[in-house]
């Protein structure tokens, strides 16, 4: 009996060996499929929370891929990306503002999206047209989860206290000024106790001036290809005079009141503020007063808006398994499912038309004005968003703080910004 048992085991050795070998190979194959990639973005609480939920859903559908979210303060974000690139490391997928694209391409921080997975015709069919700002030389370099436009937030309670109809926000710039004057309150010494409008140059007001007011006064901010500054014009001068006049002439607000425009509005001490969709989630937590949203007031019937977005791109260092995983993750974060999460948690508009342009969204009292604004929004090409933004900020401050004449400040800004454009394009 013992001999027979040994004999049977001996005869089964090839089968056992094959089984063990197959197990080892299977384990190795499974290990090869398991991959971790990093996703980098700047710290903005609602965006971080939304991405955590998106990652959770993605990992559930892709059990072989783990995504580690890494965040940095906004002021440090680009510096960290450059440092990581120099050290031979970096994210596999990253967030970037559309206006940073040329800088990121020049710095070899990103790589083109593979056309096999991200087809131009499908992108241009399904996304809002402003997505084309992520295309260079026939190649897309990134896709957004959400897009932004701007609108007027207003405090319904302050409107009512000022004798204004809380259900009829201003529709023109003249009405905006009149409503702001009615709401503004100052003490005996002339100090603001309550502003009709929160004014914040460094946040969104520079965009309001350059990308919206200039167009509403009949001009353009840049040439169609983005190579020439176009706002050094009569329209540019009128729009700059209007914006700076809100403080110098009409005195309906003041830069620095409560430090930030959004803080003044949240504190119930500002009747209105112009801001983007990304502020919706924050303002939804307000409990002290009722607020509403309206499309931006017009000038001579002209509508204008500024469309922008943070896109997601594949890092230049991603190769092999990490590149394949990065492609899957980028496809997921730009999917309808991810956009629904983003709208719910952040308040930013879905980048895909079919997700954004539902009847419910268009009629929504909060999202509706932003979505309607997207239909006439412009997204100008930019080569160095931070530097170009600073030019506008410095120009406005020159008028407000140094009493620089409007046309002189405008001309100096245009010359300075043109130099930025020319330098980048190698002229």
Task: Summarize the entry for a quick read.
The protein is an alpha+beta fold. The chain contains 18 helices and 17 strands.
Estimated structural class: alpha+beta
Largest sheet: 6 strands, mixed
Average pLDDT level: 89
Distance between the termini: 93 Å
Low-pLDDT windows of residues:
1-32
The name of the CATH architecture of the largest domain is 3-Layer(aba) Sandwich
Question: Helical stretch count?
Answer: 18
**Helix content bin:** 40-55%
User: What is the assigned CATH homologous superfamily of the largest domain?
Assistant: Periplasmic binding protein-like II
At the fold tier of CATH, the topology name of the largest domain is D-Maltodextrin-Binding Protein, domain 2
Strand content: 5-15%
Based on DSSP secondary structure assignment, what is the total number of beta strands? 17
How much is the radius of gyration in Å? Answer: 27 Å
Shape category: globular
The level-1 CATH class of the largest domain: Alpha Beta
Query: How many domains would you count in the coordinates?
Result: 2
């Amino acid at each position: 009996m013992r001999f027979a048992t040994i004999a049977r085991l001996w005869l089964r050795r090839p089968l056992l060996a094959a089984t063990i070998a197959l197990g080892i190979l299977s384990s190795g194959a499974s290990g090869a499929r398991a991959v971790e990639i990093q996703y980098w973005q700047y710290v903005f609480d609602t965006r971080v929370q939304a991405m955590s939920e998106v990652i959770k859903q993605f990992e559930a559908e892709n059990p072989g891929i783990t995504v580690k979210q890494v965040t940095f303060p906004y002021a440090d974000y680009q510096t960290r990306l450059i440092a990581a690139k120099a050290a031979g490391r970096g994210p596999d997928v990253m967030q970037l503002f559309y206006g940073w694209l040329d800088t990121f391409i020049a710095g070899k921080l990103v790589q083109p999206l593979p056309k096999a997975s991200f087809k131009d015709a499908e992108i241009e069919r399904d996304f809002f047209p402003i997505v084309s700002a992520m295309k260079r030389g026939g190649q897309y370099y990134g896709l957004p989860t959400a897009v932004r436009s701007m609108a007027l937030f207003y405090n319904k309670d302050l409107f009512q206290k000022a004798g204004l109809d809380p259900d009829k926000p201003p529709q023109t710039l003249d009405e905006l000024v009149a409503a702001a004057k009615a709401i503004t309150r100052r003490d005996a010494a002339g100090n603001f106790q309550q502003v009709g409008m929160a004014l914040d140059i460094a946040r969104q007001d520079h965009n309001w001036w350059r990308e919206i007011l200039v167009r509403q006064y009949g001009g353009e901010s840049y040439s169609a290809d983005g190579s020439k500054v176009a706002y050094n014009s009569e329209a540019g001068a009128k729009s700059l005079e209007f914006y700076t006049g809100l403080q110098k002439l009409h005195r309906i607000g003041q830069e620095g009141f409560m430090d930030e425009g959004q803080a003044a509005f949240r504190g119930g001490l500002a009747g209105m503020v112009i801001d983007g969709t990304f502020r919706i989630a924050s303002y939804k937590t307000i409990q002290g007063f009722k607020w509403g949203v309206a499309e931006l007031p017009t000038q001579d019937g002209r509508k204008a808006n500024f469309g922008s977005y943070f896109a997601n791109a594949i890092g230049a260092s991603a190769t092999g398994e990490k590149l394949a995983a990065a492609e899957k993750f980028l496809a997921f974060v730009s999917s309808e499912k991810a956009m629904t999460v983003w709208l719910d948690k952040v308040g930013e508009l879905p980048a895909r038309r079919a997700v954004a342009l539902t009847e419910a969204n268009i009629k929504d009292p909060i999202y509706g004005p932003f979505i309607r604004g997207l239909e006439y929004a412009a997204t100008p090409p930019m080569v160095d968003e931070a530097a170009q933004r600073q030019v506008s900020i410095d120009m406005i401050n020159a008028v407000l703080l140094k009493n620089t004449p409007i046309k002189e400040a405008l001309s100096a800004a245009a010359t300075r910004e043109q130099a930025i454009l020319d330098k980048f394009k190698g002229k």
